[in-house]
Every structure is written in C-alpha cells, then in structure tokens.
User: Which sequence fits this backbone?
C-alpha cells in the first residue's frame, strides 16, 4: 500500500475517489502489502484518517501470510524468533506461536525500525544452528517522506551474508501472499488485477500468478526503470487518480 495509496503520511491523489468507484461498482479488492510492521487495524485507521472506510478483512499483510505459512509447517506452541514490529508479533502470537529465542525452530524477519546488532547476532546464531530462515518480504527499500529508506530486504541481505543461507520469502513476488489474497477474494487469476509500484515484487509476482498487472509511478518505480527492467507491466499509469480515470473509461 505504501507508494500506491499513500507515501509516508500523505494520501495519494485521488484516494477517496478511487475507493468510491470500487464500492459503487461492487469491485472486490484486497489490499495486500509486503509491510509486516503494522496490523490490519492500523492500516484501517490510517485509511480512515484519509477519509476512506474499509473493514480489516480487506487488508492482507505479509505478516498474516507468514503466520498462515507457519501454521501449515508447525503446531501451535512452536518457538519462533522474530525481527520485526507489532504487526508481525501480533500475527504470530494470534496464530499460536511462542515468540522466543529458546529452542526457536524458525527465524522470521520483518521490517524493524528498532533493529540492533544484538537482534542480528541472535538471528545469525539461530540460523547457523539450523533454524529455518523466513523473510516476510524482500523489499530492498521503503518509500518514506524523506525518500527511499532501507527496507526488509536490506535486513535479509545482512543475515544472508552472515549465515550463507537464503531466506524463504513469503511476500511478493513469491506466491504465498498472492494465493491467500485470491482465496479471500474467491477469485481466479484471470479476473484479477494487481496494482503496485514495484516492478520486482508487485508486477513480477502478479505476472507469475497470471494476473493483469498495473504499475503506478507514484512510489518506487520510475518511468526510466521500464527501459532496463525485463519485467513489463500490462499497463503503466502515473498514480491512483489516473487509475480511477482509466477504470471510468
């Protein structure tokens, strides 16, 4: 959602009109985000501040998708060590996992603005001891008001270097997040569009799933990136206002 619906604390131009059109036409939607730091309720509150009112069920975070993935791998009560913020902590505890380094079978890494050397050190030791290494998302940067800042991919890169281990990625462009979004929508790939601002995650992942892909240039990707990227979206628009106009025909 960062870079598409808002940037930092500023809503995207045309945000209210876009959702009004979706609701008017009965178009089902899921807001699937690679950001694991916030809870769905926090996203709902942020949208409400911008004048858009949606239920929490329309928000799907990579933290929730990670919890669903782990539920298929391990029973409740399994210890999991995390690097991450409230959204990831809550998703895993609600799924029945114990957040602890003691005997941790999984190391789950999400974006963490309180990252410390000790957190990296603990994660490194656990992964080297055999814990599975899972990343909520591979986003290398995060679009803040000051510009592009280090994202979760930067944290994963540090741990991958320290452990010689590649993480299992849950969020875009990998399939788990997309599969859960389609399941919530009750929709097939052929009737679904992916709207995003990142070529290497949103658009690439959407194409892998067989979705119609729409790149908005309001976040990370720039028009000049299209000249060098092998990823080709089906449609390129400037921002959400342009998408609303396109939908109206």
Assistant:
């Amino acid at each position: 959602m960062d870079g598409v619906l808002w940037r930092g604390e500023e809503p995207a131009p045309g945000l209210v009109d876009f959702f009004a059109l979706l609701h008017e036409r009965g178009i089902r939607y899921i807001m699937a985000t690679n950001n694991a730091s916030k809870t769905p309720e926090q996203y709902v509150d942020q949208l409400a501040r911008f004048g858009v009112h949606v239920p929490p069920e329309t928000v799907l975070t990579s933290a929730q998708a990670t919890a669903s993935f782990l539920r298929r791998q391990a029973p409740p009560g399994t210890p999991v060590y995390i690097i991450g913020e409230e959204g990831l902590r809550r998703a895993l505890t609600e799924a029945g996992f114990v957040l602890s380094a003691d005997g941790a079978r999984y190391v789950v890494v999400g974006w963490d603005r309180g990252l410390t050397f000790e957190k990296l050190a603990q994660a490194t030791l656990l992964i080297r001891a055999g814990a599975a290494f899972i990343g909520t998302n591979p986003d290398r940067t995060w679009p803040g008001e000051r510009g592009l800042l280090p994202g979760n991919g930067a944290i994963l890169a540090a741990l991958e270097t320290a452990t010689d281990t590649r993480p299992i990625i849950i969020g875009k462009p990998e399939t788990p997040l997309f599969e859960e979004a389609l399941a919530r929508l009750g929709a097939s790939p052929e009737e679904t569009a992916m709207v995003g601002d990142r070529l290497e995650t949103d658009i690439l992942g959407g194409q892998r799933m067989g979705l119609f892909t729409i790149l908005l240039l309001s976040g990370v990707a720039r028009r000049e990136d299209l000249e060098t990227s092998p990823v080709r979206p089906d449609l390129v628009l400037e921002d959400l206002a342009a998408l609303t106009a396109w939908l109206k025909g």
